[in-house]
Design a protein that fits this description.
binds (2S,3S)-3-hydroxy-2-methylbutanoyl-COA
Amino acid sequence: MSNSVNVANENGVAVVIIDNPPVNALSFHVREPLHAALAALRDDATARAIVIVCAGRTFVAGADITEFGKPVQQPELRAIVALLETIAKPTVAAIHGTALGGGLELALGCHFRVADAGAKLGLPEVKLGLLPGGGGTVRLPRLVGAAKALGMIVSGTPISAGEAKAAGLVDAVFDGDLIAQAVRFAGEAAAKGGSLAPMRERNDRVAETDLAAFDRQAAELARKARGLEAPLACAEAVRNAITLPFDEALAAERALFVKLVAGDQSRAQRHLFFAEREAAKIQGKDVTRRKIARVGIIGAGTMGGGIAMAFANGGFPVTLLETGEEALQRGFALIEKNYAVSVGRGSLTEEARQQRLGLFKGSTDYADLADCDLVIEAVFEDMAVKKVVFGKLDAVARPGAILATNTSYLDVDEIAASTSRPQDVLGMHFFSPANVMKLLEIVRADRTAPDALATVAELARRIGKVPVVVGVCHGFVGNRMLSARGAENEFLLLEGATPGQVDKAFTDFGWPMGPFQMGDLAGLDIGWRNRKARGLTAVVADTLCEQGRFGQKTGQGWYRYESGSREPIADPDVEALIRAKAAEFGIARREIGADELIERTLYPLVNEGARILEEGIAVRASDIDVVWANGYGFPIGKGGPMFWAGLEGAAKIVERLEHWHRLTGRVIFEPAPMLRRFAETGSWEGAGG
Ligand code: T1G
């Protein structure tokens, strides 16, 4: 056959083996021989049944995403599935690892699906701004019912083999030798004989659909789409599967797929897919990783506790150190409460909770960190305090242990220099809540050893984080750009905008919330303390804080909040304060439109990103996109600030920045040379980024 598709015959059962590492994507060089093999086996009398299985660590993880946007080479997946449905002898998909997207659609073309107990099955296309384009929206509802299919396709979240069995998606779940058991299963099906109904004839599950309930479910899901087209298209396609004849529903699915795959949103989300994987690659990737078996956390506050949970959730034993017993117990109480909430929500089993809590060891003695391979400090953000902690750590940590600081802006080089082993020191900047937020900024200090970096980057993926390596500067990539994005906020208010108008421009853009509502959620006192520590002022925000308006936690901030509600209510007192401050500074007020609001907040964001690239604080422009999409809620349908700059038009951004720079003289508007080069070359790589 070919390198990527081979056929064996096990006692009259043909076994088709797909082998296309690393994830058996259905690239053209797989599809062509696969189609040929199945066509031959259909009419091959020596094959009483056919089993499709994959070599390597997973079943087919989907269509080959790298082929999207390029001319389509025949045969397509749909043709292979259509061919499968003409085969009268039993066809069985034997699934291990993951059957995702086109991989599950291939399996849905078979009469039977059997799975390894640890397998995961799903249609995650929506996460790429797409919908299943190989018949999944039409065939899956026929197996699992419309409601289940809608949930799986709009969320894109894979389900376990056990759940798939319960839902009718797989016919058997096996432990042990999957191929042998699949061959036996296929043989028995062949021996049983009788007609095998292709999916197009299995209409009972869709026929029983309560359409009104379905539409309510779809409306609820659509409400959360926040401007993303794919979730709506997914719901429309599954509805077609219920209401239209099989082939019409397939054709409608195709039309939706073709539209989405050519759209900016899917291009943006595919960009983020590969950008996340690229960001995890450390230059000089052949360095040996250090062994990490036990992790130590210094500080059991909100961040320390969340970081400890992230490692316990990843299966790592954790030593949690605090200055005193009382603080330690307070930290553990918070951890136990968080796990109890997860069990209460059904997102964690009681057994898993027990197992994770069993991984913690508390201590108030630095000596107990001597057997840790990685120690992360998460104490108060003060350089003097950090240096004391690292001094003590340096004295007890074993040689070769990695020493990390969770600072969100302090100078990691200075912290490293306060130890005798700067090559083992780096930053691990988690985002709150650390057991939930996926982003991890790994801060490479001047003397950090490459193997320490590579070890932590790999470790991050093992605990479900998205790692991005950044250099040392104030606020690293995320927070530094955040302050550039917010630098105009006060001016915009004084010149005539309201907090509500600015926040609406952001939510219309696709953000979960705008800067003022975000400020109220995080607590305005944090920024206030920061500004005071750095001798900076923000006339309106400082006044709010002097009045004790710290946001949701005090029921008043930029907005006011009914007790117990997080719903922001515009507060005339705040607008009166803003008008008074504008008068005090002699600032004329005027109508400010949404375009201007975006220009004066997101254009400086991109510009600061370009400066960060120029300085080498970020290795790639796409790394900045990964930081913003995973840590700051940048709309994934826009691919992150640097990708979005391409959609928005870099020349326009430069022209408008120059306009505001001329008008205000403020440096955030002075176009970075890298941004100008991006406007000329059309790519950040071309611009030297
Ligand atoms: N196409 C091309 N390359 C892929 C790929 C794919 N589908 N999946 C993974 N890779 C590459 C990835 O870029 C990386 O490359 C390497 O494989 C290892 O991946 C018609 C429209 C399967 C759970 O969305 O979720 O089918 O960086 O680092 O952490 O309806 O990969 O080494 O050069 O992620 O073990 C739908 C995407 C496609 C699943 C494994 N399928 N993949 O995770 O490894 S659209 C998906 C994943 C579709 C049809 C439609 C994960 C994984 P490199 P990795 P991992």
